[in-house]
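queue> holo job accepted (manganese (II) ion)
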Amino acid sequence: MATNPLGVHALVFAGGTTPDEVEATIAETKAAGFDLLEMSLHDAAQIDIPAARKALEAAGLGIVCSRGLAFDADVSSTDLAVVERGSALLQSSLQITHNLGGTHFTGALYSALGKYGQPLSEAGRSNVVAVLQELAKEASQHNMTLGLEVCNRYETNVINTAADALRLADDIGADNVVIHLDTYHMNIEEDDFRRPVMLVGDRLGYVHIGENHRGYLGSGHLDFNSFFHALADIDYTGPITFESFSSAVVSPTLSNDLAIWRNLWDDGPALAAHAYRYLVNMLGAVDASR
Ligand code: MN
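queue> job finished
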């Protein structure tokens, strides 16, 4: 039986990270049945870290933190001041993840989340590699793992495919840097939902499940059957986290970075409960068919 920890992104429940919002998000994550909560660190300044950690532990939930960078704090830039600001953001975010009790820090750790007007430069790529080598070293001292989330062309120019991510991870050359696949992005960039999973194999360390329009699982056209069979074929036992975004729940920063202009649902807790059942049913069906 598949035993992947199942997670949900905090933006299903709340747009901000005030103590009340974090407390409600933790309660809703637990109520929907999930094992872990993923928090974006885009608005991290507000988080009451000791209180959040206590509430997560009391609920028995794991925590994963994620983020993208910004165009003025971007480690893929060729402007060293911009690279330095991006690096500082990564260092502080890694520390916050650790302080919250998390072991996984993932996302677009290598660039801003947004549309670039040109391809990645060689010098910019070298800066990504150098910064992430340092961050991986820092992370390993806390037994932490970094995820490279493969994002589509409209959100980054650094890694758009699983093959790109593997090349970047090879160049970083650290055991605690894993590949993070997301079905929403794969739908735009990959040939299908199976080959990237087989290519990444045991270097897959984190998964985002999202529909093609980022709404209700099963309401779009993504081939989740192929994807979940592929995960089973590589014996993936890592986290699987549901991501969905609607203009009904707005983060002042992340929603704009992700171009969340449409209302795909209003009731986050109902969406989350459905997603949990969907994931459990899918994993169960794949498992039973083996
Ligand atoms: Mn994602």
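queue> The chain has a mean pLDDT of 96.
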